[in-house]
């Protein structure tokens, strides 16, 4: 996750990255130990049930009712707390379909773990909204204006319900828009941002498409379109009133650095140091996924690779074990090939490995990198 707004404003410092949304003004003494301890943010797909049928759903969510009990969820939270996991992103499926989601998030808070919610927003009503206070942040998925979004979501009226849910959520907790870009909706990005600004929505987070679940290669935009899109996002990021973020394409950070380098060397240097600390794709390093059956994966797009099951062994043992893929992801620059292998910025980017894997070579170049050969040399 890259905050373009903070990069262009010179606010993306290492110290602020230590905690999710933290604003400490100093670099903690044990910064490097924290950075190397691999205590990840966990995306927890806590249910596979969903009331929509989105065309690009990476989880292929459906009406599958098999999921963990409340007590099993508490058991998992105990294990995550013992490893000092800092934050959980509750996702699905649609997590609000679980009657116990607020009880589970409350238990996480009791154990010292912050939590955020990823939701399609359609179930947020007056009965739900007060309970959202247990979360640090609520991200509502909107993938275009009304007609585009409803076509994506497979349900007429989904946009109106989701947008109303977003407005209700924003009354009680920091809330924003999650937008997964594809060739079918990229033209809606700027109009949707405009609409969000008009309604005082403070954050817009764009997810680059990853071919997983129901999302396919042919659904993605091309790299000329991607570069133009990021240019537009950077222009928006220079404006006040909304934080613009991107996810699942580390080259966005490098592109932002190169653009800053042309206009403000001091901000460019700050951005570079921040990106160097982040280290690019954090899958298997500072990002983990737990699915609705308790299986642990390197990230939420890698469900066909399981490291272990947190109901059968402690999360710490799974995450700190000898899994071959995890070890390589944590030393990925040794294995990179193609454009990523020869890139001068591979230490701070490295591409998005699961996307490269979906295209046939886990250590090959990330096909969504839009940087030119001149820019990476």
Automatic annotation (TrEMBL):
GO terms for molecular function: 4 iron, 4 sulfur cluster binding; catalytic activity; metal ion binding. Keywords: 4Fe-4S, Iron, Iron-sulfur, Metal-binding, S-adenosyl-L-methionine. InterPro entries: 4Fe4S-binding_SPASM_dom (IPR023885), Aldolase_TIM (IPR013785), PqqE-like (IPR017200), Radical_SAM_PqqE_MftC-like (IPR050377), rSAM (IPR007197), rSAM_sf (IPR058240). CDD domains: Radical_SAM, SPASM_MftC-like. GO terms for biological process: heme biosynthetic process. The keyword 4Fe-4S applies. Its cofactor is [4Fe-4S] cluster. The keyword 4Fe-4S applies. Residues 36-243 form the Radical SAM core domain. PANTHER family: PQQA PEPTIDE CYCLASE, RADICAL SAM DOMAIN PROTEIN. This is Radical SAM protein.
């Amino acid at each position: 996750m890259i905050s373009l707004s903070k990069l262009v404003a010179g606010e993306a410092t290492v110290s602020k990255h230590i905690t999710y949304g933290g604003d400490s003004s100093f670099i903690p003494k044990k910064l490097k130990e924290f950075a190397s301890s691999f205590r990840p943010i966990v995306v927890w797909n806590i249910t596979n049930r969903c009331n929509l049928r989105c065309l690009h759903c990476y989880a292929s969510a459906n009406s599958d009712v098999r999921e963990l009990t409340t007590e099993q969820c508490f058991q998992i939270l105990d294990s995550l707390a013992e490893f000092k996991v800092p934050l959980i992103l509750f996702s699905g499926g649609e997590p609000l379909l679980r009657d116990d989601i607020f009880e589970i998030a409350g238990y996480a808070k009791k154990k010292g773990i912050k939590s955020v919610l990823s939701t399609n927003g359609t179930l947020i009503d007056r009965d739900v909204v007060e309970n959202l206070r247990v979360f640090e942040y609520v991200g509502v998925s909107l993938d275009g204006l009304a007609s585009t979004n409803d076509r994506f979501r497979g349900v007429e009226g989904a946009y109106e319900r989701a947008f109303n849910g977003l407005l209700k959520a924003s009354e009680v907790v920091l809330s924003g828009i999650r937008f997964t870009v594809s060739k079918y909706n990229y033209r809606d990005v700027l109009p949707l941002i405009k609409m969000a600004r008009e309604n005082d929505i403070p954050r817009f987070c764009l997810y680059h498409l990853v071919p997983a679940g129901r999302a396919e290669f042919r659904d993605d935009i091309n790299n000329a379109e991607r570069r133009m899109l990021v240019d537009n996002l950077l222009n928006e990021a220079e404006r006040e009133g909304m934080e613009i973020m991107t996810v699942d394409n580390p080259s966005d950070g490098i592109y932002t650095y190169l653009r800053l380098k042309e206009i403000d060397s001091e901000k460019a240097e700050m951005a570079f140091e921040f990106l160097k600390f982040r280290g690019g794709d954090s899958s298997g390093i500072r990002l983990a996924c737990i699915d609705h059956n308790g299986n642990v994966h390197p990230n939420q797009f890698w469900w066909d690779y399981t490291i272990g099951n947190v109901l059968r062994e402690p999360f710490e043992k799974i995450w700190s074990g000898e899994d071959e893929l995890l070890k390589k992801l944590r030393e990925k620059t040794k294995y990179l090939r193609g454009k990523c292998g020869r890139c001068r910025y591979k230490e701070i980017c490295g591409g998005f490995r699961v996307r490269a894997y979906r295209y046939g070579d886990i250590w090959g170049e990330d096909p969504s990198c839009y940087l030119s050969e001149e820019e990476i040399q």
